[in-house]
Amino acid sequence: MPTESHRKAAEHHENAAKSHRSAAESHGRGDHEKGREHSSQAHEHSTHAHKASTDAHERSKSSRSEAGSKGGSSLSSEEHSRAGSQSHKNDH
To answer: Are 68 and 74 in contact (CB under 8 A)?
Structure first.
């Protein structure tokens, strides 16, 4: 399910961001050993995030093509992106 795969990708991105912040804080305190540990964790999370994002994108593409063959949305991925950006602007 594309929604689940996007949620999973977002979780990996959030974990990577947390680890990056922890690494920065540790390095800022001069605790470089701990900073390297957090940096390593951040890299691992980022790698998982990239893979999960790629998987989510592929699932979305296949879901869209299935929907298109069933009479679903005929918007291109660029049009979907623009429509999504517009809806976020309208939310604010």
So the answer is: yes
Three-state DSSP class for residue 48: helix
Which whole-number Å values give the CA distances from 41 to 21, 35, 71, 75, in the listed order?
Answer: 11, 10, 44, 38
Which stretches does DSSP call E strand in 1-92? none
Tell me if 41 sits within 8 A of 19, measured CB to CB: yes
Q: What is the pTM of this model?
A: 0.63
Rg over alpha carbons for the chain, rounded to the nearest Å, is 18
Give percent of the chain with pLDDT exceeding 70: 66
Token pair recorded at residue 45: 């999370």
Amino acid at 30: G
